[in-house]
Structure formats: structure tokens, C-alpha cells
Amino acid sequence: MSRRGARVLVTVFPAASHLYPVVPTAWALRAAGHEVRLAVPPSFRPVAVRTGLPVVQVGRDADTGAAWRGFAPPADPDEAAADRAARTVAMFGSVAEAAAEDLTALARRWADVVVFDPRAYAGPLAAALAGRPAVRFLYGVDHTYAQRSREEPLLEPLWRRWGPDTVDPAGSLTLDPCPDALQTDTPPGSRAVRYVPFNGASRVPVPLHAPADVPRVCVTWGTSSGASAGHLEPLLRVLAALAPLHCETVVLVAGDQRGLLGDVPPGVQVLESVPLHAVLPACDLVVHQGGAGTTMTAAACGTPQLVVPAKGDQLVHAGRVVAAGVGRRIPASELSVPAVRTAVTEMLQDGGLRSAAADVARENRGRPSPAAAAEVLAGLIA
């Protein structure tokens, strides 16, 4: 590594859940004297800027909904899985196509190493074209590696259009912030890193630090589910289930989605745009949709989870939560007031869930820090 320090180019699929997990390590790199640039498409720039890291705009915005128009899953499970995989790769591939030219030029001109999330396929492509190490930074359970046999052949046309002899979507190295109990298979040689929740800067609700006289349940549907669906009906059903229970209910919602909640039952506390990690340590249970950020933050905080997955990686996260013994799941198709009420009542009395969740949080705290991950990244540069 030269005396000027490493130059680390970070690119992610333009969603907060893909960006936020890498931010603590990016800041650790900055604190160690290295340079970092976040490369993002135009519409994602405001989110990236709020991390406080230097941001470079690359490419153009892609139409990520195009791949899903007219989606009607075939009745045959194998055909449905194949169709979903093709559409998934087409969606993420469209973002890669939109960024590849600018990102490759920036990698050639400036970067020593390219860091990317598992769905930011322009990252390993640009690294291959520029001859730079490519480091894959997971944002949770490594379900993309588990699906590699189905998805990697679908990526070949993307690689061929840009011309490198070979592109490994797993990169040169994988950095893994997911606790072992929740993780599936990862590439050989993957390096563990502690998951440090990051949600941006906002006000922390001091009163929640006080112990509750009754069990406290947090309900959140993440930041993207309500925005994409245009409603928060599943969350409202959960609130209806909790209303008669002897517990305190706290709802976390993005400020721009508060209107989707409408009126809530008496006694429910609504917190707008408050960091989840500032609330969960004071809660006995969290009910959520299975997003990566919520699942990982709950794991890091040692909070048992009731997951209501509807699609995609939500299903994977819910399965891993159950397998780790830190929670339960209710498929979105089976969500009902009685089902939630029964599950919450039983979970609040289950000491085994609390113990397992505490063990997972303890394991996460014992993983190498973002500062150690920054040293690993810097060590890749000759």
C-alpha cells in the first residue's frame, strides 16, 4: 500500500438496506486515513450523502420495476423459481448496466479496491475490467451465494457485453457481518466482521431507555415495504392483535410514511424516523416483515423476532431466524389477528427465545470490528 493510503470505491444496489451495513466499515477506513468514495446513481445520491461519506454520482437511474411487470408466478414450483430468478437477475442487472461504464472508468482512474454488495453486479464487473481487487460486503444472510447455481448462468450475458474473460460475482473476498447462527453457506475464505447497525443521524427517544412495567413490543415494517406497497395494512393488523394484550407497543415508521398508519389504537407510541438500534435494546420482542436491516439489527440487539415474510429474501431471513431459535414466523399469506396474538403471547413467555437471542448478540459482539475489516481491505493492496 502506498503512503497516501488506500482508495476504496464502494458501490451498492440503490437501497438503504444494501448501503447501511457497509457504512461503519467505510468510516473505519476513513478514520484509518484511507480514502472512500460511494458511487451511486442519481436518485440515490440524497440517501448516500446522509451517511457523511464522499459521494460520486455514476451512470443513470434504472427502471427496476420493468423486470417485474406482468409477473404471474407459474403454478409449477420449479418453473416459478426459475422465472423469479430470471426476473431478479434482470432487475439487478439493469442497475449494473446503467452504472458499469462510469464505474469502470472511476475504478481505473482512482480506485485501489472495489467494495460491492452481493447485488451490485457492476462492482465485480468494474473491478475485473480495471484489474482491481473486488470485495463483496454482505448485508445479511448470504442467500445470493446459495442461489449461485441458478443465477450465475443468467449473469453471463452481462459479462459478455462488457468483455472481461471472467467475472466472479463472489469477488476476491467476502466480508460477512451476519452472525453464524443466522448465516448459510458463504464463499471459502470469507472473513467475519461485526454487524454495527447504522440508520443515519436522528433523534433518540430517551424515555424508551427506562424499563417498562409490562413487556414492550416493537412493530416495524422497515423503510421500503410501505413505500413500495403504498400501504401498511400488515402492520395495522399486528397492532389490532396487540391492542388487548398486557404489553406496551411501540411503532417505528419512516417519517414520510406516517400518513399510511392513520389512527392507531390508544396507548400505542409512534416514533418517526428513529434508529431501530436505539429502540430494540429496550424491547422484549420485535414484529417485522423480514427485511435484512431489521433482521440483522434485532440479532445484534439480542431481541427475539416474530417475522411476517411476504417475498424474496424476507422468506430466507424468516427461515434463518427460526433455525437459530431466536424467533418465529407467520407467512404473510397467513397473517391474522388471532395468529399474531397467540404467537406474541407465547413468545413473551418463552425464556429460550430470549436466551438464544442474547447468545446471537454476544457472538456478534465478539466478531472482528469494522476497524479490523478496514485493515483487511487495506491489506489487499500491494
From TrEMBL:
Question: So which residues are the signal peptide here?
Answer: none
| A single BP term in Gene Ontology | antibiotic biosynthetic process
State the SUPFAM superfamilies in the record.
UDP-Glycosyltransferase/glycogen phosphorylase (SSF53756)
Domain Erythromycin biosynthesis protein CIII-like C-terminal intervals:
237-377
One function term, GO molecular function aspect: hexosyltransferase activity
Q: Which UniProt keywords apply?
A: Glycosyltransferase, Transferase
Q: Which residues cross the membrane?
A: none
Location of the Erythromycin biosynthesis protein CIII-like N-terminal domain: 27-222
Fetch the Gene3D superfamilies from UniProt. Glycogen Phosphorylase B
Q: Which InterPro entries match?
A: EryCIII-like_C, EryCIII-like_N, Glycosyltransferase_28, UDP_glucos_trans
Q: Which Pfam families match?
A: EryCIII-like_C (PF06722), EryCIII-like_N (PF21036)
Q: Does the keyword Ribonucleoprotein apply?
A: no
Family, according to the entry, reads as follows: Belongs to the glycosyltransferase 28 family.
UniProt name for this protein:
DUF1205 domain-containing protein
Taxonomy of the source species: Bacteria, Bacillati, Actinomycetota, Actinomycetes, Kitasatosporales
